Amino acid sequence: MNVVFDLGGVVLTWRPVELVASVLPGRAPDEAAARHWVREIFQDYGGDWLAFDRGVVEVPELVERIAGRTGLTAAEVRAVVDAVPASLTPIEATVELMREVGAAGHRLLYLSNMPAPYADHVERTHAFFAAFDDGVFSARVRWVKPEAAIFERALSRFQAAAADCLFLDDHAPNVKAARDLGWQALQFTDAGAARRELQALGVL
Description:
The protein is α/β, with parallel strands linked by helices and 204 residues long. The chain has helices spanning 16-23, 31-42, 47-54, 59-70, 74-87, 92-103, 116-125, 138-141, 148-158, 172-180, 191-200, and strands spanning 2-5, 107-112, 134-137, 165-169, 184-187.
């Protein structure tokens, strides 16, 4: 089986509310304010941030766009953008699950919406990343989940059939897109639940 992991929110922590609150305490003195700025900056991962994930906008232009749209200063936006890589820390329970999947003889793969500088950081920084046999980052192929093209590109790169791929992602539209294209897919909530589902499927 080709077991394909999303990264942010699955293998790597992604807590944007905490991130914004820590970087912009003056703008986000409470959770409601932090959530407001998360919506403004990340746009539910559409708009400017989607272009960043797609690899068609680089950091200076992204900062300019967000600052112009939100009223935040360029320095504030840049501080948030620059703080993201260090916030992407391994979720140890999922890393352990990955080890179990690999030990069971399955290929370990990833399919992640991630801007190029963050992808570079993850590859460089985290030892667990060497466990993956291969993977696809959105910015490097100029497609993003849940677009069908990125799933097709992944199959081509992995030299695998859709039916032989099991995808774990925390975002429901991505899970649906994978299933619609013939992949097996599970919506990830935490490593314990994922392990139970993999056991029920006979993967573990």
